[in-house]
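Reagents: none. Just compute today. UDP-glucuronate decarboxylase.
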Amino acid sequence: MNILSKTVIITGVAGFLGSYLARNLLKDEKVLVIGLDNFSTGKRENIEDLLNYPKFQFVQFDITQPDILNILGFANIHEIYHLASPASPKFYQAIPFETIEVNSKGTYNMLELAKRTGAKILYTSTSEAYGDPEIHPQSEIYRGNVNTWGPRACYDESKRMGEVLCYLYHSLYRTPVKVARIFNTYSAGLRNDDGRVISNFVTQALTGADITVYGDGTQTRSFCYVTDTIRALMLMMEKDKANGEIINIGNSLEYKIIDIAHLVKQFTNSHSTISFQPLPQDDPKQRRPDIQKAKNLLGWEPKVNLEEGLQLTINVYRKKLSI
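Predicted 3D structure written out:
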């Protein structure tokens, strides 16, 4: 009979990153994973296979509710990965108040849980904390250029508020908290209807729909394959020198959106037409992380290049769509 080495909480476990993280943690038979999700944007199908794992427990719950502290406040918890939040503009703009609440009240509850149980906690923030950056690439000391009066503010600003709460718990209570500012992560695990660049382009190319590029496509992004992002999060949790630190997690290679569209067309052998639509309000023109801090503190950098990651993503999407 295996003796548990640690119990790990994952909020947002039915989401893209949460479900992938859970599978990685469960490779260790001595780890118990308790997954929390209210299915606001996560999907039950993402965790169907996990329900068969003897060391996985799922609790359908809204972490913004204070009852969560009564439910788990006396448990023997070692680590908390706080991933819960809508992450795609399509979803967080549809439920802006819920997005604000999970990143503020939900984050407070998870920090309080960590304080009560002595657990280490990792908060997943976002590159959106930099807004439409005026400094390029973006390092962790850059304070950002964020519009508080626009459709993206509910996500950008609530994530920044979550960072403030993390700072307070670390500085006032010495809670071992780490903050990951995650840049664009992708794989076939992204929902087809997610609305983000890679999922949109691949789905459109495979189905023969127009590939929708917003603006003229010269805006840039950096894309990190999910295995690299998850590896970084696990390293952050493991290393005590990441306590009290904000660390960029992303790929430092930068691509124009129009070039991604052409690359997806090429890899899918698609005859889709690239169509141009108006650029959404506050859409950043450039986005690329400075990852020197991750290299120094974690010994981490991405291993999967864009071409390899796109091929992996396309192959799985093709099967999902039966094309």
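The chain is about 35% helix and 15% strand.
Action item: order primers for follow-up constructs.
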